[in-house]
Amino acid sequence: MARNERASSPGAPVPVPRQRLDAEARRAQLVDIGLELLRTRPIDQIVLDEVIERAGISNGLLFHYFPTKRDYQLAVVETAAAELLASLEPDRTLAIGDQLRGGLEAYLDYIEEHPLAYRSITRSAGSDEAMLAVVERIKDAIVELIAEPIVPEPDALLRLAIRGWIGSAEECALLWIRERPCDREVLVDLLMRAGLHLVALIGELTSGAPLP
To answer: Which of 113, 103, 47, 127 is nearest to 80 (CA)?
Structure first.
């Protein structure tokens, strides 16, 4: 991967004066710049020379923290995924239905505010095992958030059902962002009903009751 990529976007910001930062602060600064750029372009279109210019550092210093461009992309996507997960943290004092609705609202808020970051989290993995691992971790964590108020230790069937519902919600949200086929409230109600019906169906399956 070439290390001398040049920023091609017009009107690039004036580079900031160089400043000394400790290792942790410098790494965080570089990731924050990537998150800011992720608001305007997909992760694969982030140009490292622009990151270097914005940070006011040398090429060598960036590659000291991130040996390859992919390492840098991975760090940015991992941080974006952590921000998404933090935004979905529910209020456990609420009823289960209210927690689910609040999570859906927060989920759509994040996608509306960070559409390219969200696509980078969910669509940029390809065959990259490290990126796939990030996607898997975030989805598993969301399963735990949803399952926790339903049952303390969710079994494999409940995890399977919730994971499937998350996939459905993701596809619906991405299509909704692109085409806006209905009001947001309609989308939330649709996903809410699907989620609650799924939980009820799992309860019937595990109790041995006949399905309708």
So the answer is: 113
The one-letter amino acid at 197? H
- State the CATH class of domain 23-72: mainly alpha
| Residue range(s) of every CATH 1.10.357.10 domain in the chain | 80-207
Answer for the pair 162, 145: CB distance below 8 angstroms, yes or no: no
> Whole-prediction pTM value?
0.76
- One-letter amino acid of 83: E
Long-range CB contacts for residues 135-140, cutoff 8 Å, separation at least 24: 135/81, 137/81, 138/81, 138/84, 138/85, 139/163, 139/166
Q: What is the CATH number of domain 80-207?
A: 1.10.357.10
Q: Which tens digit of pLDDT belongs to each residue from 142-176?
A: 999 888 887 778 888 888 989 999 999 999 998 99
Instruction: Supply 48's token pair.
Output: 């490292």
Helices 115-123 and 129-147 meet at what angle, rounded to 10? 110
Nearest by Cα to 109 from 56, 18, 117, 35: 117
